[in-house]
What does this fold into?
Amino acid sequence: MGFQGSLSRSYPGAVPAMVYVQRSIEALAAEGFAPENTLAGVAVCRDELTRPFVAMVREVWGEAFELGSLGGLVFAGKAGIAAMLAHTPVRRRRRAVFFGLSHVGIDVDGEVGRVHRDGHPEASYACGALVGLLGRLERGELRTGLDPANIEFSLLRDRVLPRLRHPAHTDLLELTEVARGLIAAELDIRVREDAIEVDWALFSGVLIHGPEGDWVAPGSAWLEVGGARRAL
Ligand SMILES: [Zn+2]
It folds into this structure.
């Protein structure tokens, strides 16, 4: 079916990644958000494939606080979010903008989960953590609990599992969507519980690595000003 066919079937609302990032600044400009008065926070997977997206955010919003772990999940916790919010520019109102995205590859043949990586003659996978989790689930490995030697992966697994309708019969698209929702929910909880009053926006989505660049399928997005929230 090819990349474009697969993209429009699995992620019909996807746009080129730079369009997505540009829209964020356009959507927030009317509310007074600008790079000089706003700190960006980014939660994406550790995979080097996500670096071009982070570079786009930096290009538009300036240097960004890193919040992502394997899969893009946020385990920075209260202390991590408190640190970031304490770094927001001190103005009459403090402002922060968050980008929280899970990610997936789609290769030139339209195969979901696959990417080409330079230096790898064979197809590779993204998100590797979610593909790894999928393999375990398909083998019936449903063991849970924090593994000190594998902290991020075991936390990822333990957060994702309860959100699956049928853990033994899931697929990468569902895992990717669950991861996106977990990233957004964790940021939401941690920002709202922090003592610093901040006007903030969150853009969630799925970052898609295609053969000729990155795309984003927009997920939930909102703006909260003075404690009042509206969808973006
Ligand atoms: Zn990943």
The beta strands are 15-16, 38-43, 64-66, 94-105, 114-115, 124-125, 198-210, 213-225, 228-231. The mean pLDDT is 96.
